[in-house]
Fold:
Amino acid sequence: MTGAVLALQGAFAEHEALLHTLGIKTIELREKKDLEEPFDFLVLPGGESTVQGKLLKELDMFDELKKRIDSGLPVFATCAGLILLAENIENDDKRYFQVLPVTVRRNAYGRQLGSHHMLLDFKGIGQIPATFIRAPYITSVSPEVEVLAKEDEEIVAVQYHHILALSFHPELDMDGRLYRYFLEHMAKNASDMASGTTSDKANVLPFSA
Amino acid sequence: MAARDDSPETRYELNKDLAKMLKGGVIMDVTTPEQAKIAEDAGACAVMALERIPADIRAAGGVSRMSDPAMIKGIQEAVSIPVMAKCRIGHFVEAQILEAIEIDYIDESEVLSPADDVYHIDKHKFKVPFVCGAKNLGEALRRIAEGASMIRTKGEPGTGDVVQAVSHMRQMNSEIRRVVSMREDELFEEAKELQVPYDLVKYVHDHEKLPVVNFAAGGVATPADAALMMQLGAEGVFVGSGIFKSGNPAKRAAAIVKAVTNYTDAALIARLSENLGEAMVGINKDEIELLMAERGK
Structure:
């Protein structure tokens, strides 16, 4: 299985390093021709959503990626990636993929002094370390979106079909559990559908431990 | 619900993490909210708020200080990306002021007139992060020992001449390669030579890089300059005078942003470099009397 990491700006190398520890190959998406390489899921890393969103469009990658996400490409998104996916952004007029029916607030904890680290209860996994860097959070979700984690009342992790979106950065804490969850529950099914393999066969996965 | 961990160690990690989010990006000097908007729209990953860009500081001469907090706040209001600001080397009260207005990053900068000719700021005393300039590995590790969570080359600010940034990046990387190649028992002596803690030398030896993000700065004026610094190993680029001292700032800024993302694609950089208008005129290091890079070692 190969993950494509959007490498326009931000902390994409950290995602690649974490995926490599799980035995997953990665490619970097920096310009349109990189989309010709085959890959099974997409990673939208942290960074500045304004920069990434602008470059996605100006480097002519936006439409193709949106089409693929719409047709089931699994997506793992952190921080800026969540903003790129959100249908609505409360405090910004810009919109990007709009494939995740949630409303987010950018820089929701304020400036860098509001950045923080904590242990978070994650549905189905338990306590995980969570690093929030000038992070957004989700202020409302449509009913079909599953909330996976909250800090107090604020929603900081959701799943929607083939999309896993987080306010925080498991790649900074080098915690592979959320990726394992994503790969087993979301990326695998999509990859099975694409390759036509049976679910029995696909159950045998190196990261199922 | 678990409490937030607000120990100084965690705060330092969070500050290093913010620098990681800036990687692959361009941080632009701006002097007004309007320029800050232009920079954000052009794809800056952060802006550096200052009253005068380095080229004008050179031209004006005299003592150069931290900017008016009201002016910095105006820029914070204007954009949604991180806002940085400069304080003078050693001027910890200017740094306290910048922390009080919740700046995202403080640049303890040789571009301003140094306030202390011996001591840098003890950056561990602050919750907000610091970036500092360095022209070699020793300077970089000394600043990190003082609490800097990001490093940039000094280059020679306000010149539009990339030669010093190139020389500092090459120097840093060649010293890193030398430390990596050492036997472990040689690292103690190297720490002594560099006048830095052993732990930091050991980190460089083991990881083949600085323990914090390292950007290029000082003299970058064109998309090609920016891509050159990236190919030499910079993790991102500061552009100061190069943008708003040029003929078409918005276009040049956007071109530099794309050149940093796709720094190995010469065909793309060729297209980006077309019709950018006048680059900043620039001055050569041999023509200037004040070498800012010699401030703060």
Summary: Chain A touches chain B through 44 residues (CB under 8 Å).
